[in-house]
Amino acid sequence: QVQLVESGGGLVQAGGSLRLSCAASGRSFSSYAMAWFRQAPGKERDFVAAISWNGGSIYYADSVKGRFTISRDNAKNTVYLQMNSLKPEDTAVYYCATWGTRGVVLTTPPVYWGQGTQVTVSS
Question: What mean pLDDT, rounded, does the chain reach?
Fold first, then answer.
């Protein structure tokens, strides 16, 4: 069982930055690929970014490439999402998730999810 707790969301103006954090419980964190998803009001939950267990493989949605950076600190059991040049269309609840595998499995929904953190970007 993995428990994930997101933090760092908030209200920011367009063009601003936020850094989201996801703290994971359990000693297996360093063995798990991690991901960020987001869900805007009235829309489906979409993939944002993912990172393999050792950071060797990283993936981004086209909509955030060049603006968002995913990273992890296995010593702190934490994964981060640095979000720069934010746009109003980035407004959503952001979720941290993991498949419980070393590699990223983009074809399958993650098994474990956090509760989400709200990010609101004003124009």
Answer: 96
